[in-house]
Design brief:
Residues 1-28 form the signal peptide. This protein is of the alpha/beta class. It is built from 12 helices and 31 strands.
Amino acid sequence: MKKTDLSRRSALTSLGALSFAITVPAYAASGSAIGATIDTGRLGAPISPFIYGGFIEHIADLINDSLWSEVLDDRKFYWPVVKPEPAPAAAGGRRRSPARKWHPTGSDETVSMDPKGAYVGAHSPVIHLDGDNALGIFQSGLGLGKQAYTGRVVVAADPGVAVTATLIWGDGPAQRQSVSIATSGDWATVPLAFDCGAATLDGRLEITGTGTGRFRIGAVSLMPANNIAGFRPDVIARLREMDCKIMRMPGGNFISAYDWHFTIGDRDKRPPILDPVWNFAQPNDVGIDELLYMAQLIKAEPYWCISTGFDSPRSGAEIVEYINGAATTEWGAKRAANGHPEPWGVKYWDVGNEMYGHWQMGHIAPEQYYVKHNLFVDAMRAVDPTIYIAAPGGFADEMTTGQGIFIEGQPQVAIGSERDWAYGMLKNCMGRFDALQTHAYPPENKHYDLSTGKLVDIQPSLNEWSRGMAQRIQTMADCWDAYKKAFPVLNDGKIKVFFDEWAYHFGADYKGCLAIASGFHEFFRHTDFIEAAGYTMATGWLDISPTDSVISATGRVFQLYNQHFGVIPVAVTGTSPVPPPKYPIGGDQPSVNTGSATWPVDVSAALTADRKSLIVSVVNANEAVQTLKMTINGVSPAKAGRTWRLAAPGLDAQNKVGAAPQVTIQEGQFNPRAGTLTLPATSITLFEYKLA
């Protein structure tokens, strides 16, 4: 099969000669069959496995409370230990909010915060004792399983003081376990071990003392005994099952004020720092070495994001040396001393995140940032010239629809204007990046009005709604076409686009799966330059409780395509073109609506790597059943074929911990030579045609 250039426009408008006719099921509003043609002689650039990538960020407690197995919050006492205040209303975040804090078991006067003799951070709690009355601190609301726990406490005590740690999982005297803690006058790290007798979401850890004098606590940790170097084994197993090929971390907006120097070395000595981006006290436990080890555990390529906000080019060079430098270098030696003598060998580097946005710490004017970016890259590549650099893109569509700085009376950012950040990067930083980043979070049931620059409410059909993400992918592709005209060097295909933040709906339900599948189809139509994507957040592939996790509906649709779709795109044309643009072109309205010319269903096709099978994916985001007649040119399918369908009882179906899964991948069979097949309504189905 000859590989030829496959553009989306040519795929929509040209038909190949018919050589073998078959039918697969679909919907059309009229009830009549829609014709589709797959031309195996017209191939696109291979689909990068990085399209199925993920993105994780230290958004408040997100990483700490999902991947990491630490049970305690604020384990190094960023906050003072005081009596609990009335619980505020839930903040509505992805994880619990606010974080749990430590409180005194007695009155406030029994605990003071010592700034001078602090073990780590700004202060450490000091408990003042009064004899046989046990006094100390506690943290409640702990999610515990019926299993063994290990931990440690850093403690110092006056002579004669007896210190005890108690884990509590119920109200009865048999539902707790106490262990004595050996102490001295100096700080000492004492191991803890408990055998929790029952699961609870309201566990409690107390550290108390008796005697006269005082005792101090520097840090406390409590983890399930089966943790994998601090990570939850259940979550690691699920992420390994997801087979994520690339993981962007540790941010996101978070990194603009992030100082990586605080995230290496002894975890108990890493100071807790208030992250000003998300207004959350980060313990800095899940740092560089931890996250890179996690990437190894789940077999994902790490894509490391560094701060160009409050950080400096020198710091950029230092982190490259810490991660990739030999153990004989200054920072490589520090990494070796921290337990990893061999370089991590990180290839992909994200230099800055959304630095075009005023919400980023350290945001500066474009003409200044272009200089800063070049200084960063030069310093980093002086340490390791082999690294691959992705830079903040800020494409014109992204800058128009909410990621840029709105100017009254100028709602649309024009290609090549001063507000077109990507154009400025191409003009001023060419040669100092290998890819440009773009981000998209299209709002549901909204349209960006180009006349006012405001979002207006709309009532799209389910089919239109499901293409919301795909539409934004195409608006970016429109920008890329314009940039190629302004910068012809882009036509050689060497500079790529990383769609390294994207999400739509955030519902983790089957309805969202329809939108993700349509988004995948649009990615597959632009494989000539879209090289990677990072779903926000990769933890959204799972539903996670304090003690268990399952693959979510979102995770299942990723698995469906990652595991079963082909890798060499094949041209798809048809007899039912997509409707013309509904709104003026620009903003969130692309020059041509997305989807194959098989409206109202969307068809994508690709050959497997060995070219022995053709996989055809049909997304039918409609609530009526109709037929799609498909013609395959250039090959003769075998008599038997397989199907993989994402099955669900309804649009609101989800997979939740503790409940039977509602969204599953079901394998079946079909006859590739049959005349008509029927697909269920609102369905996502992959058909495998074995090639004779």
